[in-house]
Amino acid sequence: MAHPPSMSETDRARVGAAVTAAESATAGEIVTILGSRSDDYRDVALAWSALVALLALTVIALFPDFYLGLYDRLTGTWASEWTPGRLLGLAALVAALKFGGMWLILLWRPLRLALTPAPIRHGRVHARALALFRVGAERRTTGRTGILIYLSLAEHRAEIIADEAIASKVEAEVWGDALAALLAELKAGRMADGLIAAVDRVGAVLARHFPRGADDVNELPDRLIEV
Length: 227
Fold this sequence. Notes:
This protein is of the alpha/beta class. The protein contains nine helices and four strands; from the N terminus they run αβαααααββαααβ. Pfam families: TPM_phosphatase.
């Protein structure tokens, strides 16, 4: 997976400092991850290509004379006799050309993403966030108090996933304010400010439910992780 547009060292430092500040009042451990996109959506490109090929076959079935006449004009023949085998061959050729043409068009990633239904995009972002959470935060703290803030740039979508101790006390809907603040700043072109806003709000919630103890140690990295 390609790396996301690089943040400046200053912005990375600002996000890391925000995590450190938020964790100064809580036993929770905040992990921030920035990704360029959550999936390549190649299966979506295949589905669109297959649909276009199927539509082409349907059009041939509905208007066979048009395609037969077009073939005759292109090949310079006149009123040639069409056997079932030749008909099937023409249909297969048209379907293959339509499939290949659509596949080539969808090699352009922005169009492929635009043609991906929103529920699929949202599901892929969640799946990617969950995979990263399991690797980078789940059960990696003594009190099971890790929490992931994940931003996927291509989809303009973010996810917050909490470890079991946090999830047992804080409903998932509570993180909606942090996600809204993140995406509002992102839409304005302020990526670092969005992550910092989310970190601040998550830290405030964690501080209420999991105040920092005198013997608390930093168990997960504060720096922004880019994947």
